[in-house]
């Protein structure tokens, strides 16, 4: 299929770009012996799991359904963390997963014996109370009042039997200098017990495949835990796996004026790129410029009834017209995993672009996908 034949809106994942990211991650694994697993919360297009599984050690999940997906579609190491587990799901999660990570000692006391009865061990999430982010507290696991992980004040050394490793996750789209700072806090607060562990998980939020990412410093951080404490090191990036490897293709439905030029697209910020409103985030748009940079500036909006369903203001070399196709970049991550059918909006089709530049529609969605969620 050619690009101009694709249905819109659609998410397009470029296998060549995805594999470029995987090669970077695979190189880190080869040089350090660390294990890197895919955080499915950021990217779960399982038709790409055979490719991802050639490079990475497995998957990380946030609950039963992701655990099943990782087990069924990749079939390698399978890790699960949840702030609290349901009693009617924990047995299946234990069956599916290699690492079950608890968020509190009360969860350890409630479910730990079930894990040990299967011959497996479990991990504990810790909170080093080290915030390296500026703003965006919604994505800050170390914010005051965070529900994630055990702080030093509430750490229970008397309950460490059966706990094989410690997990922390403090980063969001950050470089390895912030990881190094976090490791200082981890050692300061939990250092006396690190040598008792078999592994440590650095969590996600590492923007490893970004151009300016300091990979040598990351590898120093990995070796620091390996050499000093004899720990096996895990990382579970999500964004870094599919960073800049996906696109959202959309069509201009109409143009209008109201104090400025406006273009209505067949895609929605609210439904199809929610981080635009939640983060907030301005996605890159191929061939466009900042407002006023090029001769024609438009506010790009979706077709829903939400007044704030605006993607942003962009400028173009030529006026937009009905039927024009626009291509937003970096649309593989946190897009298809978070999209909705609000207002009865159709979900974008899922498309793979292979290394020869050929496009294949992997899945299209219709009315039944909207209807099945309601009753």
Automatic annotation (TrEMBL):
Q: What's a single GO MF annotation on this record?
A: diaminopimelate decarboxylase activity
Q: What cofactor requirement does the entry state?
A: pyridoxal 5'-phosphate
The GO biological-process annotations, alphabetized, read as: lysine biosynthetic process via diaminopimelate; nor-spermidine biosynthetic process; spermidine biosynthetic process
Q: Which parts of the sequence belong to the Orn/DAP/Arg decarboxylase 2 C-terminal domain? A: 10-331
Residues holding substrate = 239, 275
Sorted alphabetically, which InterPro entries does this protein's record hold?
Ala_racemase/Decarboxylase_C, De-COase2_C, Nsp_de-COase, PLP-binding_barrel
EC number(s) from the headed UniProt entry: 4.1.1.96
This protein is called Carboxynorspermidine decarboxylase
Record organism: Paenibacillus lutimineralis
Q: Which gene encodes it?
A: nspC
């Amino acid at each position: 299929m050619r690009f101009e034949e694709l249905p819109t809106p659609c998410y397009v994942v470029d296998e060549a770009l995805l594999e470029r990211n995987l090669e970077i991650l695979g190189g880190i694994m080869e040089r350090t012996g660390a294990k890197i697993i895919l955080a499915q919360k950021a990217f779960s297009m399982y038709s790409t799991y055979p490719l991802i599984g050639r490079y990475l050690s497995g998957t990380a999940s946030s609950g039963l359904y992701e655990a099943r997906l990782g087990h069924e579609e990749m079939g390698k190491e399978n890790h699960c963390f949840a702030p609290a587990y349901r009693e009617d799901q924990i047995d299946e999660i234990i069956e599916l997963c290699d690492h079950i990570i608890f968020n509190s000692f009360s969860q350890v006391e409630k479910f730990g014996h079930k894990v040990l009865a299967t011959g497996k061990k479990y991990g504990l999430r810790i909170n080093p109370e080290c915030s390296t982010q500026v703003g965006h507290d919604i994505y800050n696991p170390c914010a005051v009042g965070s529900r994630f992980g055990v702080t030093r004040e509430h750490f229970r050394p008397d309950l460490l039997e059966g706990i094989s490793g410690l997990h922390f996750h403090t980063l969001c789209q950050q470089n390895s200098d912030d990881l190094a700072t976090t490791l200082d806090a981890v050692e300061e607060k939990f250092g006396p017990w690190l040598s008792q562990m078999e592994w440590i998980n650095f969590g996600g939020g590492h923007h490893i495949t970004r151009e300016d990412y300091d990979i040598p410093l990351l590898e120093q951080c990995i070796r620091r835990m390996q050499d000093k404490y004899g720990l096996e090191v895990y990382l579970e990036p999500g964004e870094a796996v599919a960073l800049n490897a996906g696109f959202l293709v959309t069509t201009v439905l109409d143009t209008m004026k109201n104090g400025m030029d406006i273009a209505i697209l067949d895609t929605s910020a609210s439904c199809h790129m929610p981080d635009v409103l939640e983060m907030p985030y301005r996605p890159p748009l191929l061939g466009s410029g900042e407002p006023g940079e090029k001769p024609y500036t438009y506010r790009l909006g979706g077709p829903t009834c939400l007044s704030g369903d605006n993607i942003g203001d962009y400028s173009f070399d030529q006026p937009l017209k009905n039927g024009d196709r626009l291509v937003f970049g970096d649309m593989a991550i946190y897009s298809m995993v978070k999209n909705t059918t609000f207002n009865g909006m159709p979900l974008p089709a899922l498309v793979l672009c292979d290394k020869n530049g050929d496009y294949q529609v992997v899945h299209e969605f219709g009315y039944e996908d909207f209807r099945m969620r309601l009753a």
